[in-house]
Amino acid sequence: MEYPYVIIIGTGIMLIMAMFIVLFVMYYQRKQIEQQMRVKDMEAEFQRKLLEVSMASTEAERRRIAQDLHDDIGALLSVTKLTFNALYGQLGSKDQAERLAKQVREALDETISHVRRISRELVPTTLERFGLPAALQEFAAKSIGSHTVRITFGYSGDENIRLEPKVELMLYRVAQELINNALKHSGGTNVHVQLSLPPETFGLVVEDNGHGFNLQEAHTRPSPGLGLDSIEGRLRVINGKINYETGPQKGCRAVVELRQLVLFEKAKKRDVEKA
Asked: Rounded to an integer, what distance in angstroms lies between the CA atom of residue 118 and that of residue 25?
């Protein structure tokens, strides 16, 4: 008569052991999943840091080249122009010589202008001194001169607010890339840039009325055009993302979002037109 009790007790012990084994396996699997998630987070953070270092190195190289252009080549060209002007005064009244001298002087002026423009584009001094709204307004105004496309800039928010310098620089480079994409590839006639800063919600939108593009095809190409990888990489550095509203013959609307907005300081005074 004792055998049934022994079987019941043994069965109960086995069930308890089986339950413990199941719970242990579940716990172990949970820990494995958590570990994998931690590893993925660490890898993502490492990639972000690596990208940030790469971007910082690129900007440092831009700054060095701009400094060399301004200090060395720009100075040499200015000295050359002064020397040439002195020589020009000694030419007398020979028509052909004066005509050639005028052409050379115009070429020097144009070269100096290009060197200054390239230097400013490599290191946007307006951005450093006056902030993102003024820099974007200036870039949009300069882009109009070399294209038939109409570019407009709208701004809302406190114009004295400054973001963290790294964030401002990355947003400026992203806006540059988006505007250049619209000018070169959209085939449209209008490009509008809209920037919103606190006390309103942050927002950066670049839209055009061009022929648009197939976003999925652009991402699946072996070498994606339009600088999409560069744009997304810069935004990852500052915990941002971009959404495209586009399609064939539908134009393109690019919306930049930031997961965290860090205010840095007050901007220096400069007139910025509001939308």
From this structure: 63
Question: 60 and 139 in one domain?
Answer: no
The string of pLDDT tens digits covering residues 228-256 is 878 888 888 888 899 999 888 888 999 99
Query: Based on the domain organization, do 115 and 139 belong to the same domain?
Result: no
Is residue 236 a contact partner of residue 45, using CB atoms and an 8 Å limit? no
Encoded amino acid at 67, one letter? Q
What's the domain count of the chain? 2
| Letter string b/e over residues 59-94, b meaning 16 or more CB atoms within 10 A of that residue's CB | beebeeebeebbeeebeebeeebeeeeeeeeeeeee
* Residue range(s) defining the domain that contains residue 164: 125-274
pLDDT digits (tens, 9 = 90+) for 75-121: 667 777 777 676 666 666 567 667 767 777 777 777 777 777 777 76
The encoded tokens of residue 263 equal 């205010």
Alpha-helix runs per DSSP H in 123-227: 125-130, 132-145, 165-181, 215-220
Cβ neighbours for 116, distance < 8 A, ≥ 6 positions apart: 70, 74
Of the candidates 259, 252, 211, 208, the residue with the CA atom closest to the CA atom of residue 228: 252
Closest to 252 in 3D by CA, of 201, 196, 183, 203: 183
Which SS3 state, helix, strand or coil, does residue 227 take?
A: coil
Across the chain, where does the E strand assignment appear? 150-156, 161-163, 190-196, 203-208, 240-246, 252-258, 263-266
Q: What is the dihedral of CA 44, 48, 49, 55, to 10 degrees?
A: 160
Query: Cα separation of 153 and 137, whole Å?
Result: 6
CB 235 within 8 A of CB 53: no
